[in-house]
Amino acid sequence: MSETRDHVSICIDNILLSLPTSPSKPTIFRVVDDIRSINQKLYEPKVVSIGPFHHGKNHLQKMQQHKLRYLKMLLERRKESSVDKYVIAMRSLEEKARKCYAEPVELSPDEFVEMLILDGCFIIELIRRYGLDELREGDDEIFQYEQFLSQARHDLMLVENQVPFFVLDQLFSMTKTGNPDDNFLYLIQLFIDDISPWPEATEVLPESSTKSVDHLLGLIYRIWCSSFAKNTENRPIKTVEEQLVPINSTIELKEAGIKFKKHEQSNGLNIKFIKGTLKIPKFSVSDQTESIFRNLIAYEHPFIDNHPKNVTDYAFFLHCLVNSSKDVQILRSRGIFANLLGDDQMVYTMLNRLGRNIIMNSEFCYSDVNEKVNEHCHSRRNKWLANLRHNYFNTPWAVISFFAALMLLIFTFTQTVFSVLSYVK
User: Among candidates 250, 274, 258, which has minimal Cα distance to 369?
Assistant: First the structure.
């Protein structure tokens, strides 16, 4: 007679058997609570859901009709009467796509495939229509109202609102037009060009750069960060203590004799300290900047420790540099900050929030810059000058008073000399 097994043992064994022998590596995550807690709305779509995490939410249902319309217009443009071949293509990718999500997707195979087609085709058609004017219809509400387009573009850049890039790449390849400008990478760069935080930075990626990209936000991250990441490779290894030594605020650095200059023709992240001058590429601050940065920081969050977190480090660098609205004013006057919010206090508040609840990497991208800046500030001469400026030349009237006193001293000395010479004669 066989021994009766405990039902708990059977249950656990069945769960273990269902697990894959080697766990998959997801690329699409929900934002962790400590990052989300600063402002939950920055991670949630306003008008359109992409992928399963926000699928089916009531306030996003209106856009489902736009997705269907875009798909219908795509089929008509290609003179196709059915979605058969797209369904076949997405079914072949279903299992691979499910593994990209960090939690189980509560959609049936049919629902999941339908979502991939509708969401994927919506993204590629929106990006196509943005770059190729001739594909737009006159009654397309998204392009009729700038705010609608702005919200839709915002939603496509949310870390939780993504489908795998290989899904988009497959659908785009299947629907290419004869237009030589109908190139996915080129059109994506056009789509994000006027919302880039670094408006003067020029990045042109080769076609091969789309390989192994996680999703649309991941490609945008690569467009903005790849050349800077290459420049920071092969740096000398430093201890954590050496890596994460912060710098003082703009006002304090200015008092120590450091100059600030806009770094021309450079990647947006490429900050340099050369001969007492901190060179920073132009940084444009708009009402979308915080959301873009927050989602890029959230995207970097799961990176392993030896993987550079370029945007997180940049945000922390600015967080150190800007400690008041006066710091913003100085950087704006040097052409480094373009304040589209209108109020320097709002920029300071935003950068202050960006610096909260972020986890720093041991491989801090700006450790060399910080080291050189701090060496400059800690030299005996510059410390003396900083103290002089802070305590005696901290207002225009103090400077005027100093020079008035100096002139009076010189005048008195001169008068004394002439009096002595007159007496000698």
Answer: 274
